[in-house]
Design goal:
By secondary structure, the protein is α/β, with parallel strands linked by helices. It has 2 domains: 119 residues, D-Maltodextrin-Binding Protein, domain 2 (3-Layer(aba) Sandwich), CATH 3.40.190.10; 103 residues, Periplasmic binding protein-like II (D-Maltodextrin-Binding Protein, domain 2, 3-Layer(aba) Sandwich), CATH 3.40.190. The protein is built from 8 helices and 13 strands. A hairpin with a 6-residue loop joins β2 and β3. The radius of gyration is 21 Å and the shape is elongated. It starts with a strand and ends in a 9-residue tail after the last helix. The relative contact order is 0.21. It binds adenosine-5'-triphosphate and 1-O-pyrophosphono-5-O-phosphono-alpha-D-ribofuranose.
């Protein structure tokens, strides 16, 4: 049986993931044709590379179809209910940093914090007869965050991309999205609320708690040794 390692097949996390494993003496490679999703791992026997979209890796880990997976910490927290019961966080990889933030139009001079947003949201509902709309694809994380901060008078509207544009398009009044340079927010005349971000994300190596670890015990020991990982309880 092979130990399956899921890594992003393209996009912003792929190259740095390969570089991170290289610093631990493991060569990850895409093989085959340019557009073929096949790969190999050199440096430790018994490991199979599985190339996946970063956003699919949390589900594959939860299902136990891969033993290990690299993806953004935001995607695991958003995709998996009670994520710590389903995966173990093995290593923060130090790249792919991005903050999930709540942002509002710069023109809202009275709104700098979540408390301000809460006050505006109540007034908005009274005036318009519907709740202030916050566009996001991070439904779970944003709901938990707003509940924890006592903001109640809002509705989430789903936005799977170009979220910063929803305000100009009049489909939302505020947004919650990931940002790294902040350029997209600035270009769309938005400002981040002063409170701590919903989540500070980075690329992370996760282990599945549902995968069959017994059949790959020797490979696991060799691989964890190379990666400098100690024993992780609960992987069986
Ligand atoms: N502007 C950004 N800067 C840095 N990291 C970002 C940025 N936007 C998103 N990310 C992070 O990148 C990860 C998602 O990567 P990416 O967009 O390549 O994957 P994806 O959603 O699976 O895309 P696709 O489905 O198109 O392959 C998330 O963890 C997210 O936090
Ligand atoms: O802070 P910045 O460096 O400007 O980056 C932020 C942007 O990057 C991500 O979008 P992505 O490129 O993944 O496109 P998307 O809108 O399709 O999600 C995110 O959703 C923001 O729109």
């Amino acid at each position: 049986m092979m130990l399956k390692l899921g890594v992003p097949s393209k996009g912003r996390l792929m190259d740095k993931t390969f570089a991170w494993f290289a610093t631990h003496g493991l060569t990850l490679q895409r093989t085959g044709a340019d557009r073929e999703y096949a790969g190999s791992v050199e440096g430790v026997d018994g490991v199979e590379l599985v190339l996946l979209s970063a956003s699919e890796i949390p589900r594959e880990l939860a299902a136990g179809r891969i033993h290990l997976g690299v993806t953004g910490s935001d995607l695991v927290r958003e995709t998996l209910a009670d994520w710590q019961a389903q995966v173990a966080e093995l290593a923060l990889m130090g790249f792919g940093h991005a903050d999930l933030v709540v942002a509002v139009p710069k023109a809202w001079v009275d709104v700098e914090t979540l408390d301000d947003l809460d006050a505006v949201a109540a007034a908005f509902r009274a005036r318009h007869g519907f709740r202030l709309r916050i566009a996001t694809k991070y439904h779970r994380l944003v709901r938990e965050y707003l509940r924890a901060h006592g903001v109640a008078d809002y509705q989430l509207v789903d936005s799977q991309g170009a979220t910063e544009g929803t305000i100009k398009n009049l489909t939302a009044e505020a947004i919650a999205d990931i940002t790294s340079t902040g350029e997209t927010l600035t270009a769309n005349h938005l400002k981040i609320l002063r409170d701590a971000p919903v989540h500070c994300s980075q690329a992370t190596l996760f282990a599945s708690r549902a995968a069959d670890w017994r059949g790959v015990a020797e490979t696991r020991a060799r691989l964890f040794g190379k990666l400098g990982l100690g024993d992780v309880p609960g992987l069986e």
